[in-house]
Description:
The protein is of the alpha+beta class. It contains 3 helices and 4 strands; from the N terminus they run βαβββαα. Strand 1, helix 1 and strand 2 form a beta-alpha-beta unit.
Amino acid sequence: MILNITSKHVFISSTAREEIEKKVNKLSSLLPNMAEDLAQIDVNLKARKRNSYRIKLALKLPGDFLTVRLHKETVGEVLKSSFNELLAQVKHYRERHFKSLSRYPGRDSIRRGDLWMQGLNWQ
């Protein structure tokens, strides 16, 4: 996964950079069938007025574009919560695009169209 980190009015320490790389490696491990250069993540961290921080995570995947925008008081809080939210989005993406890795492997049978074809009126 290609990682781009940019910051504005914020110094990103080596520990914060290591934490970002660790979280990105966790995200890339959830997408095992993806080539290294196929996915790209942009991390934009910006200091706001009154000691708060804004982060924007943009993950470009084949067929989808996942984004997270958050405001928090500290850099650690904003990194942790934003990557947790992006992790949930990646899990949802994985279930939609990689059916064999889904938690519900036969979930096509519970869709509304299949129930309608079985004669059940679900409304």
